[in-house]
Amino acid sequence: MASDEKSLVIIGAGFAGLAAGIYGRLNGYNTQVYEMHNQPGGLCTAWKRKGYTFDACIHWLVGSSPDSSQHSIWKETGVAQGREFVYPDEYCRCEGAEGRTVIFYSDAGKLEEHLLQLSPRDADTIRDFIRGVKMCTQFDFPADDDPPFVRFRKSLKMFFAFMKYGKEFRKWTNITGEEFANRFSDPLLKEAFMEIWIPEFSIVFMLFTFAWLHIRNAGYPIGGSMPMSKALEERYIELGGVLNYNSKVARILTTDGRATGIRLVDGTEIPAARVISAADGHATLFNMLDGKYLDAKTREQYEKWPLFHSLLFVSLGVNRKFDDLPVTVSGISFPLKEPVMIADKVRERLPVHIYNQDPTMAPEGKTAVTVMLDSDHEYWKKLYEDPAVYVQKKDDIAKTIVRLLEQRFPGITEQVEVTDVATPLTFERYTGNWKGSFEGWIITPENAYTMTKPMPQMVPGLKNVYMCGQWVEPGGGLPTSIMSAKRLLKTICKEDGRKFRST
Ligand SMILES: Cc1cc2nc3c(=O)[nH]c(=O)nc-3n(C[C@H](O)[C@H](O)[C@H](O)COP(=O)(O)OP(=O)(O)OC[C@H]3O[C@@H](n4cnc5c(N)ncnc54)[C@H](O)[C@@H]3O)c2cc1C
What average pLDDT does the structure give for the chain? Predict the structure, then answer.
């Protein structure tokens, strides 16, 4: 296909790539998406084993509430239509060794009461946290499809929220998960806050997470990740977009400070007026463009900013119902009888996600269960130097996890029908994400300025190459990837003097 001035070649059919295609089509661009895998969704994925579905992504979808401004992106991209969301009462549970349990309720009032009961001596820290959560419920940006008077009302509300909470907001942004956890004097509360949040991650995001849970704007979609990815794919195709699977992009072709198109790994060249990479940021800049188009800021980012860690993701199909357990957003963490080395780290507890909120994930009477642990990409890369050792390690880990689960769920060993182990290399192989990261950049106090001053989406030194998705939006996540694509298409429309359309 020849390039024309309205052609957009998009690399990657994850949420950002497909959304770029959708908004591109809605604005009259000829779009072609090239995806290396044979299915849509990128990190928003799941796989089937012996009748079980093991979901490697969705825990909560921000913008699930029709009353929220983020909901419009889910309608525009076809994800919201016909989707059923559930709102568990509990985000997660963190069980202690001596019989006490921290329950992270979704309702902020209930959470406050429970935490105060657990540790009255931490009242100040608890109340401060809940105040922060309530502050975050006040921030709701106007949506593109809001009627003018609603936009006006929401803009006014946002203005006053920033006036009232600006200072406090900045205060929270500068506190990391670890710093906040260390404020608790109760050891279990300290441990629980450390367990549910990444130590370097700014605590302000935890406040937002609990704010969205409280206002029921972060529901779990029944069916999980894959139906959402398929819905995006369907919307894109329905709008006339071209989608090519099994098409890995090797290079972005450039001449005189402009891209002329892309080259696939099989040598096929595709001309384009503009190239959008919605694939991994590191691969885009350092492989597809050979590291030739980098400014000091971008280089620093790839050298210094911390990533969401890579994952050791163990899935189990269990012939058991777990009716005695609460439904949670992200599971239960329990202490091990003694510390155990799993892969590259010594673990003192095990986080378990029991999919009892979604009957579609397992055959009748059975349950899908996952254990998600952080694990170093380098460790696995080294193991893979001998593939037989790598495979053996995965096998050993599956057995270890089942043995440890027996401590909390007696009898489970006999009930496990299938196990599946995905490593950081699995995530890297299937999605191309740098070091197997599951969400791109962590927001830390050092890069939190990107929340108010978004990162540039143009590749430095090239006039018509753009990026969207989690590698240009610290914090990552599904809504962010869609909003990133939308932001980019607004820019492109502006460059072409067109009025942006989202429907
Ligand atoms: C375990 C887990 C839990 C998560 N939980 C949540 C959650 O509850 N809520 C939430 O909002 N987010 C969650 N996320 C994060 C979310 O999945 C990601 O932030 C989001 O999917 C990123 O989308 P993206 O389109 O930016 O990137 P990706 O999904 O990485 O898409 C990039 C695409 O580009 C393709 N690609 C890469 N290189 C090439 C190439 N050279 N040529 C062609 N194609 C290429 C890849 O195959 C992929 O399809 C979770 C992620 C994981 C792994």
Answer: 95
